[in-house]
Amino acid sequence: MSPRILPFIMVLAAMAMVPLVSTSPFYVNLTSQVAIAAIGALGLNVLVGHAGLNSLGFAVFPGLTAYLVAWLSTVGGFDPVPAALLAIGGTLAASMLFALVALRTTGLGFVMITMALCQIVWGAAYRWTSVTGGDNGLSGVPRPGGAVLPLERPEWFLWLCLCVLALALLQLGRFFDSPLGVALRGTRDQPRRMSAVGYDVWRIRFVAWMLAAGWGAAAGLLYAWYHQFVSPHMMAVTASAEVLLMVVAGGAGTLAGPLIGAALVVLLKNLASIWIDRWMMLLGVTFVVIVLLMPDGIVPGLGRLTAWLRRFRPAPAPALVPRERTDG
Amino acid sequence: MPRMTTRAAACSWLAATALSALAAWPVAAQQPPIKVGFMTVRSGALAAGGKQMEQGMEYCLAERGGMMGGRKVELITVDTAGQPATTKTRAQELVERERVNAIIGPLAAFEALAIDDYIRQVGVPVISPSAAAEDLTQRKVNPWFVRAVGTSAQANHALGEYAAKDLKLKRVATIGDDFAFGHEATAGFQRAFEDNGGQVVQKLWPPLNVADYGSYISQIRTDVDAVYAAFAGGNGLRFLQQYAEYGAPVKVIAQMTTVDEGILKSMGKEAVGVISSGWYTATQDVPGNKEFAAGIRAKYGADPGYYTAGAYEACAFLDAAVKAIDGKVEDKQALMKALRAVKLEKGPFGEVTLDEYGNPIMTVTIRKTEEKDGRLQNVVIKTYPKVTQFWTYDPKAFLADPVYSRDYPPAKNLGK
């Protein structure tokens, strides 16, 4: 296990060091955004990569949580932490209801139904102006913290995001290796056989759905705390598609893929745009290149690349073995 | 000895010039440029407005030779893509990475609201060139925010009164984009119209991205005196065209962006006769607009519109404030104070002052769209000077009421 988690520890440590190196909080905040996006992408990866359920409505989980925590901690008058717990609880409860509808289908049907569910919540956020503020959204969402944990400071907030990200990686890594994780991949590849063998496919998928919802909710909570503002835009179809893009570009079904995909999307969107005016085009071209060269994502693609390169490496020289003297 | 005197005079003049040049030169050279962040939209549905904003900004800076208050201006333009989250990150980039002295932008109200808390925290002066959300200068006044344009409803109060008093309309149906800008504009119109004896008997809200207005147009009642339209972006163009295809049974009165110059150039006969109200139209006769409109037309080949004039005005605000503090923009508090005290004698909006909430008090005109000089123009038919965001209402009572929305003020005459 330890050689596998070593790269993750190094990446997380590098991200945690950004505040010590960077001269401006801009890069610290950008790293927080990468971490938040990665948590969301990891959640979606459970569905897309391991359950084989492509969702185009993932933004509903972070969206619901963000709206709940925003409403509870501004209009509702709750403290940030109880508001956060209630928001995550509320999201999980709503997700159970959604599961009853969404998990009746697979394939294209699942894509459409998840999109529809997300659109319903988006529509409520957009139209229910008296509660949600309509497209003006809810602003002034307070971050928790105080003297011990000054989360209003960018570096502390980044470290919180990284802690959650580490938890997500750890939990999901263990889950994917567990018998349940293997069974989940079984339902992805051979749902009928799994069913025939005696596995309850629906229940296994339900676990995956709730895991995705849980990590999506965590990402949404951090999103609301980070931006201190929510608006219906975060539940638009494009927002869901962006998370899907992160998973697919990074490599669905791998643990590192969503992390790399999230970093790629967030950095291209926010860093490349500093130097390149046509950053949208750059984003598009990058994904076309990824799809052409590494159709299954960056992580599997790089794996194949190193394997291919290894073929060209000269065979190691035979070790010199001292010959026994025979003339003695 | 007259010769000596001349020589002495020449010498002393030379010395004085050299000295003053020496004294002035290092100061000018050492002063770094004023960094201005400019948030525009270059992609997505709002890109057309963003482009006009960039033109207004470019024109304003060119007119001032790239200088404000004796210092060079470095403009850092960022594209928010019309997304609130991206806008926030772009604002962080401007403040934390570029360390700008002031921000002009963003375009949309929801973008401005997305960075509202952030600019409070970091304390950077922001001038809005187009975002019109009521509460930004009403119930949620931000000490670091001033607006170069009016609120959504500011010009619509005037139209409401004009429709009731001058046009003698009794019953009006409204149709508007189903988002905050449409809601607030319609609410302002409804309030002033009903307070002057009119009745709003129907309110329709087609979604912002609706493909076809047919199903809404067929619902518009034909037993009304007029239909009030509040559309943003390219929607006014599409609505008026489709309304004309349905025979346009009743006449149209409109909120300013419905027949804005930015889309007027793409319109045809369907726009002729539309009566609208606003704080800007290319033809309005206020001090400074003639030169501005002619300059924009010469440089970009099109009439300036809402976004062009707004960005220009925001830039002019900053220029005036920077001048007032002799270019010392490093003192943020002083710059913000100067911005709040800005008084412009001339410009696209004419004479402008700010109220205590940071919102302009300016001339609002009632215009009629006509074909003139081979193109459609909004010809001014009535002028309301010094209109505030509160119209004739008492600011205290106004602010005690809820913010304008889809349901406020309540429409009591629906279905009558």
Write a structural description.
Chain A: This is Branched-chain amino acid ABC transporter permease. The complex is a heterodimer of chains A (328) and B (416). In chain A, 73% of the residues lie in helices and 1% in strands. Chain A is mostly helical and 328 residues long. Chain A has one domain (2-237). In chain A, strands 1-2 form a two-stranded antiparallel ribbon. In chain A, helix 2 (25-50) crosses helix 12 (257-270). The longest helix of chain A is centred in the middle third of the chain and has 27 residues, at 201-227. By secondary structure, chain B is α/β, with parallel strands linked by helices. Chain B folds into two domains: 34-150 and 286-361, Rossmann fold; 154-284 and 363-400, Response regulator (Rossmann fold), CATH 3.40.50. Chain B is 40% helix and 20% strand. Chain B is built from 14 helices and 15 strands. Chain B has helices spanning 2-30, 47-63, 84-97, 109-114, 116-122, 154-165, 180-195, 214-217, 235-245, 261-264, 289-300, 306-324, 332-340, 395-400, and strands spanning 34-40, 67-68, 71-79, 102-104, 126-128, 145-147, 171-176, 199-204, 226-230, 251-255, 275-278, 343-344, 352-354, 360-372, 375-387. In chain B, the strands form two sheets. In chain B, strands 7, 8, 9, 10, 11, 12, 13, 14 and 15 form a nine-stranded mixed sheet that branches. In chain B, strands 2-3-1-4-5-6 form a six-stranded mixed sheet, sandwiched between helices. In chain B, strand 10 (251-255), helix 10 and strand 11 form a beta-alpha-beta unit. The longest helix of chain B has 29 residues, at 2-30. The radius of gyration of chain B is 24 Å and the shape is globular. The model of chain B is unreliable at 24-28 (pLDDT under 50). The interface between A and B is medium-sized, with 33 and 35 residues.
